[in-house]
Amino acid sequence: MDRDAEHWEAVEDATELLNEERYREALELLHEIVKKDPTNPYAFFFTGQALYEVGEMEPARDAYRACLRLAPKHLGARIALAHVLRKTGELRDAIKEGLVALEQSPADSDALYAVGLAYLAKGEKSAARRYLEAFLKSKPELESKIEVEGLLQTMDQEN
Q1: Domain total in the chain
Q2: Contacts by 127-136 with C-beta closer than 8 Å and gap 24+?
Q3: pLDDT, tens digit, 9 for 90 and up, residues 101-139
Q4: What is the CATH number of the domain that holds 65?
């Protein structure tokens, strides 16, 4: 079994706990996995997800950054980091991470969404509009589509 497969296998039980919304239990298991193998990027990524779900943004940010140190091309971690940075008010860094994600995967709808929200939070409405409209062209799921259409309508009303 290659190293990546070993890393993935190590976190499978934790991902099941996350899917069941048992975040604290998942965190306990993930902390044990990280202790045993601090080179497992999946353990850090899923730690970030669990921390995000329980509202611990700064530790989630740190977990995503740890994942990216080990796996710089981990697109999910990069996008998640952009969202966390936006929520912690680190807007320039949020935009930067989202743009790196878009360099990696130019049409990625999640990256477009993350960059659009970060620009909006920063008050740069024309840039936000550009990315949010590109997101809508990517045919997102209905809930996200409705949210972004509402944001764009609010922006229109404010102008």
Answers
A1: 1
A2: 128/155, 129/155, 135/109
A3: 999 999 999 999 999 999 999 999 999 999 999 999 999
A4: 1.25.40.10
